[in-house]
Amino acid sequence: MLRFGKTNFISLYHDRNGKIWAGTYGEGVYRIDPADLSYSKFTDQNGLTDNNVISISGFNSLVWFSTLGGGVSCFDTENSKFLSFSAPELGDLYVYESQSDKTGKTG
Fold this sequence. Notes:
8 strands, globular
């Protein structure tokens, strides 16, 4: 059974591999496998730009995390690595949503 105490979940995303990504306010993001309820937690300690993940989206193997103060992080599920976009690349570090179009361009 999953137990997250008083964790405040604020965003959800279902990726192409069947995993559920759950963004939190202040505690990073969880990747949950619904088949067995196992999970991994990602925070600013291992690549996420900020622990307040307000929106999650994706395209192919890329999962995008919009944050309240850290810009945008992107997790590549094929190589399990984060890419980060913040100042000066972004005009504002408070990013409320990011979406990919049908060609994979993300904005």
